[in-house]
Write a structure and sequence with these properties.
Elements lengths: L4 H9 L7 E2 L5 E2 L2 H15 L4 H13 L4 H42 L15 H27 L12
Antiparallel strand pairs: 1-2
Length: 163
């Protein structure tokens, strides 16, 4: 499972392992079911669920069928959060793909100036779509920042894709 003894002690201290038995000498004795719980706890932690919410889920689970709806609600909310994070990371990945293509092209040409004279149709279609979407996002962010900057007497300064 790749979980360190330190992590297991921390989870135990936080009340996430109330089901794990201990030997007479106070050593944790893990059953097959315990490993399934630990796997789920690890998954929930990776999904961004807080220790507090994981503890609440475990408490609900230990209460039995009366809390099925509550647990379903928790998992639906966490799934939505993970899907939001994935969408955000896909946007980040697109920017990285674009920048990588830009640097690969610059390295191949021996200069970053190659992009200044480049016909947009020379840009691969998938990269061009990313570039257009990112430029639109930057334009929206700039428009949103302008009223605030103007009211504070500041000029807006945003980085551009050419860097």
């Amino acid at each position: 499972m790749g979980m360190s003894p330190h992590t297991l002690r921390y989870y135990s201290k936080e009340g996430l392992l109330p089901f794990v038995d201990r030997s007479a000498s106070n050593v944790r004795m893990f059953s097959d079911d315990d490993f399934e719980w630990i796997f789920l706890i690890n998954c929930l932690k990776k999904s961004g669920m807080s220790i507090k919410d994981i503890r609440r889920f475990i408490e609900l689970a230990l209460e039995g069928d009366a809390t099925l709806s509550d647990r379903l609600e928790m998992f639906a909310a966490q799934q939505q959060e993970v899907e939001r994070q994935i969408a955000e990371l896909e946007d980040v990945l697109d920017v990285l793909k674009y920048k990588r293509w830009r640097y690969e092209t610059s390295v191949s040409a021996g200069t970053a100036a190659v992009h200044e004279a480049m016909d947009p149709l020379e840009i691969p279609e998938d990269v061009r779509a990313i570039k257009e979407r990112v430029e639109a996002d930057i334009a929206r962010a700039k428009r949103a920042a302008e009223p605030k900057a103007a009211s504070e007497g500041k000029a807006t300064r945003l980085s551009v894709l050419t860097v």
